[in-house]
Amino acid sequence: MPENDEFWNFYWEIALRSMENMGKREAVLAASRLIRKLWQQNGQPVRLLELGCGEGQIVGTLLNGHAQYCASNLIAGVDHNAQSLARCRNDFPGMRFIQGDFTDPALLSTLGRYDLVLLVNALHEVYSSEFSHALGEINAPAAKRRVESALAEITGLLASGGWLLLFDGLEPPGHPDEKLQIRFLNEEARAHFEGFTSQYRPFRISCRETDSPFCVELSRRDFTRYITKSIFLGKALWQTERLESYQYFREVEFRTAFARCGMKISELRTLTMNLEKWQRLVEIVTPGEDFPQEHILILAQKK
Ligand SMILES: C[S@@+](CC[C@H](N)C(=O)[O-])C[C@H]1O[C@@H](n2cnc3c(N)ncnc32)[C@H](O)[C@@H]1O
After folding, report:
1. Total of domains in the chain
2. Residue of minimum CA distance from atom 25 in ligand 1
3. pLDDT tier for residue 299 given thresholds of 50, 70 and 90
4. What's the pLDDT score for residue 135?
5. Fewer CB in 10 Å around end: N or C, the chain?
6. pLDDT tens, 143-156?
7. Considering the domain boundaries, does residue 269 fall inside one?
8. How high does pLDDT run on average in the chain?
9. Ligand 1 pocket, Cβ-based, cut-off 6 angstroms
């Protein structure tokens, strides 16, 4: 079987066609490259773990593509959702799926060591779990500490020289309250925004009306929340998605947290998703402002 990059690019182009979420696609492609590299280096089946594996879309797709590099009994997924794990066990027999909280050190101590640990769209849920009813929003300092300590525990699962792949939301740089003005390009887009601001729970989205009924002013941070979370509005997933903040760290905070855990970042990319769709709905009026890079992909190796 030809196993050069051209072959794998073609394989993934076909295999990921059904994965509509482009973010996940980037995570799978990066993990695929790492798995092949690890196999070449070690000549042994790659030990792979996904924390917050959901229905196994990521880890299962990787096993399907790389059965020759990964023995299924050396691949595991952890999630606290029993229903999701039932689906995983049905779809990917032979893999190990463990129900539990991946921030729980007692659970982590039972999992063994891995060459590659995946955290795809999972850590922001740890952050979001620190919602304070007293504050009426997420207690951001406490939530950040919770993410940092989870990250430190998780890196303890890596074998010597092991890799962590993180894909998640990214807070925009600059001052959090820096304002920008936006213009909705049709009435539907304006109504969609109203629906979002009234139902999104993790933080209050505040915006200032302007002279034009189609223009509002809001912080760059809230704009980022709007374009990442409102995509679920009106869908079944909205009931859970409206409770979660996808963003928690700025790039510099990710870098600091990884360095603190003894992880050396070898690749860091920031990405914008659904840009063309957004450009049909809303325009940024403030000069010099562009759509934010709201996702981050990090590959880091244990020092
Ligand atoms: C947005 S889904 C992502 C699923 C999968 N990684 C993917 O991208 O297809 C996040 C998953 O993380 C799980 N999760 C969040 N926090 C968790 C925790 N502390 N312990 C275990 N699972 C957790 C949720 O149950 C959910 O299935």
Report:
1. 1
2. 81
3. very high
4. 97
5. N
6. 999 999 999 999 99
7. yes
8. 94
9. 24, 52-54, 57-58, 78-81, 84, 101-103, 120-122, 125-126
CA of 159 to the centre of ligand 1 (A): 23
Residues 6+ apart with CB under 8 A from 25: 12, 16, 19
CATH code of residue 121: 3.40.50.150
Q: State the residue for tokens 């919602």.
A: 131
Distance 285 CA to ligand 1 centre (A): 36
Tokens of 256: 């600091």
Convert the pLDDT of each residue in 171-198 to its tens digit.
998 888 899 999 999 999 999 999 999 9
Residue 50 Cα to ligand 1 midpoint, Å, equals 9
Q: Residue 27 belongs to what domain range?
A: 5-171+248-273+292-302
**Is there a domain that residue 62 lies in?**
yes
Residues 6+ apart with CB under 8 A from 212: 183
Residue nearest to atom 1 of ligand 1 (CA): 121
| pLDDT at 1 (0 to 100) | 44
Please name which of 219, 220, 240 lies closest in space to residue 229, comparing C-alpha atoms: 240
pLDDT per residue over 71-130, tens digit each? 888 999 999 999 999 999 999 999 999 999 999 999 999 999 999 999 999 999 999 999
Q: Which of 25, 61, 79, 83 to mutate to test the pocket of ligand 1 (most atoms within 8 A of CB)?
A: 79
In a mutational test of the pocket of ligand 1, which residue from 121, 131, 164 has the highest number of ligand atoms less than 8 Å from its CB? Answer: 121
* Ligand 1 centroid to residue 20 C-alpha, Å: 18
Ligand 1 nearest-atom number relative to CA 54? 27
DSSP E strands, the chain: 48-51, 75-79, 96-99, 114-120, 131-132, 137-138, 158-169, 179-184, 207-209, 215-219, 263-271, 282-284, 295-302
pTM of the model: 0.95
- Which protein residue's CA is at the shortest distance from atom 14 of ligand 1? 52
86 falls within a domain = yes
Does 128 fall in a domain? yes
